[in-house]
Amino acid sequence: MRRSIMTNLRRLLALTLIIAxxxxxxxQGRQSRARSYDVIIKGxxxxxxxxxxxxxxxxxxxxxxxxxVGSLKGASAxxxxxxxGLAVAPGFINMxxxxxxxxxxxxxxxxxxxxxxxxxxxxxxxxxxxxNDRMKRQMVEEQGDIKFDVEWTxxxxxxxxxxxxxxxxxxxxxxxxxxxxxxxxxESDVQPTPEQLDQMRELVRREMEAxxxxxxxxxxxxxxxxxxxxxxxxxxxxxxxxxxxxISHMRNEGNQLLEAVQELIRISREAGIPAEIYHxxxxxxxxxxxxxxxxxxxxxxxxxxxxxxxxxxxxxxxxTGLTACLPPWTLDGGFDALVKRLQDPATxxxxxxxxxxxxxxxxxxxLAAGSPERIILAxxxxxxxxxxxxxxxxxxxxLRGTDPVDAVMDLIVEDQSGGGAIYFLMxxxxxxxxxxxxxxxxxxxxxxMATEGVFLKSSAHPRAYGNxxxxxxxxxxxxxxxxxxxxxxxxxxxxxxxxxxxxxxxLKTGMxxxxxxxxxxxxxxxxxxxxxxxxxxxxxxVFVNGVQVLKDGEHTNxxxxxxxxxxxxxx
Length: 571
Known about the structure:
With about 575 residues, the protein is of the alpha/beta class.
C-alpha cells in the first residue's frame, strides 16, 4: 500500500513538472528579455524629477522609453554608460524658447543640448502660425541673418515641419495671442467687432484641436499692447475647453507690476484656465521692492484654488528690441508706420519727450535700465551697424555725436528693424528670492545657438548658452539657494506637469527616455555679456526619446526630437 502511494506521488509530481515547465520557461524568457536593454546608465545618482533626494540607481532604456530604474546588475545592453559620480535626471524643459528660427537653420540646438535641455516650449505672443498670405510675406521681408522659406500655414504644421526637417529636441508651442490678433486685425490700434472676435476664437479652436498648449501673450509690445483684458479672456475661454493654459509676458513688469499680476489672475479666474507669468521680474530699481507684493498676490490666488505659476531666467538683464524704448503708439499700423513717424521732425520731438518722461501708461525700458550705459546693443540686420554690437547705447551715441534717444530712433530707421538690445533691469536679491519659490520653473527667453556659422553674425544674451547650467552651478552648487533635487524638479517635473505633457518630465518606468547626465561638481555657464558665444560645461550625456544626442560632452548629430502636443489635441 505504501509503495503504491509513493508511486502515485511520483506520477503526480512528474505530471506537475510537465505542466509547469513551459510556464517556468516562459517566465524565464520574459525575465531574460526584460534584462536586456538598448542602453544602461549605471551607477549614477538618480534625481527623478519629483523633488525627492537622489538615490544610487541604474536606468535602463529600451526603444524610446525608460524600461527600468533600480539595480540592473547582470542585465545587458548595447550601450552601457558609467555614471559613477554623476547626476542622472529627466531632460530639462525650456519654458520660454525663441528657437523658432534658429532650429530651422541648425536643428542640433547645441547651446541648449549642452545644458541638458531636451524640450523647448515656444509661444511668447508671436508664433509661427496661424499665418495668412500677408503675414507670410511680412515674415520673409523682416528676416535678418537667418533666412528661410515659409513652408507652413498653421502652428501645428510648423511643428511638424521642424520634426520632419530634423531637430535634436522635442518642440511644443502655445498659440500667440499677437499672431491671432494680427491675422484678423492687422497691426493697428483697433478693437475687434463681434464677428472678428468670432474669427479669432475659431483660429484658437483649430490650433488647440491640432495640439497647441494654450494662449501665449506679450503685452508690452504692439500690437499685443492694444488688446483689452476682455479680448484675452475670450480667447482663453476657448483654450480652456481643450485643457489649455494661458502664459503671459505681462502688460507691465515695472511701474505697474502689481496691476499686471492682477490682470493675469483675473484672466485665469474668468476664463477658468491655469495661468503662468513669463520671466517673472521687477524691472527697474525703483520697482525692486514690489517683488514681495507680486509674490503675495500669486500665493493668495493659489490658496484660492487658482493654478498660477511662473518661470524665470537667471540673469539680471533682459533682452529685446530697441523699440521697447519707444511708446506703443509709435508702432500703430506696423513697422513702416513707425519709420515714417521717426523721420518726421515734429513727431520725433514728441517721441523723445515721452521716452524721457516717467509714465505708468506704458513700460519704458530706456528709463527702467537707469541710464544708456546699462543698455548694450546686441543685434542688427545691417552689416554697416554690426560694429556697434557689444557697445553700450551711451558709447554708440557718443561715437555718432548724438543724444542716446536720438541714437535709438536713428538706429531703428537705418537698420530697418527693431534691432536687439540687452537691458540691465533686475536685482540679484530678487533673482534668488524667485528661485526659492516652489512654483517657479525656468526659461531662457532666447534662441538656442551654436558658436559657429550664421549665429556669430550677431551678439547674443548669455542666457542663450547658460541659463540652465547657471542655475545648477551658481545658484545650487556655489550659493546653495535651493537643493539639487529641487532644482531638477523645477527643470523637469514641475514644467511637464504644468504643461500637461504626456509621459515627460520624470525618470520613471514607462516615461519617454529624455535623460540628462551631468556632473554636479563642474556644471557651469561660461557665456558672459562681453563674450556670449560660449558653451556651458558639465553635461556629459543627453538622450532624447531614447537616442543619444550628447556623448561625452559632444553632439552626436542625432536629431530624434519630436513635435509634442497639448492634452486637448484631437486625433
